[in-house]
Amino acid sequence: MDHLDTLQLIALAAALGWASGIRLYAVLFIVGAVGYAGWFEIPEHLRVLSHPLVLGASGFMVAAEFFADKVPGFDSVWDRVHTLIRIPAGAALAASVFGDSPPAWMLASAILGGTLAAGSHFTKAGARLAINTSPEPVSNWAASFGEDLLVGSLLYLALAHPVTLLIVLTLLVVVSLWLLPKLWRFIRAVSGQISRALRGVAATRSAATGKAADV
Fold this sequence. Notes:
There is one protein chain. The protein has 215 residues and is mostly helical. It starts with 5 loop residues before the first helix and ends with a helix. Helix 1 packs across helix 2 (52-68). The protein has helices spanning 6-37, 52-68, 74-81, 83-97, 103-131, 138-160, 162-214.
């Protein structure tokens, strides 16, 4: 296997960061499985992911997340909990790509990975909140399977076609920057409607209680 060059390392670090914000456990399992099978060269500090014990743990979490992510409503709870997990994990994985490099490279890679993980995570979480306003589960399942495919595709491109990966990832970042403000405004509007409806219900109950007391 050929040694990874700088461009491949940058592409892999960027892909790990972005993909971790969407499917962290799938990232851990896929990278570990690829290294275990010897399909692609994996940076030394990521080879621990190929250990059978780590593969077993990440594989179990892949299965758990696969089903959790396809339950409308619960997927948003899962995303909220993983806000504290995906972003630092994306930073750590990206930094590990440059584990044998000077500290400045590792720090820059961690900043890149964490930022990309945050962007993809909040885009995914916001999109899921918007999708969950619809009662039917089909759109939720379609989004979830689409994310599964996207993560696998990004990791493959990072390892096999780094230039293509960087182009695709640039487009994804642009889409996220365009989409995030719109998702935020939509979620705020829906939250406002729900709050007003709850206040209306509370006011109606209070008035009914007052009338009952007068009688």
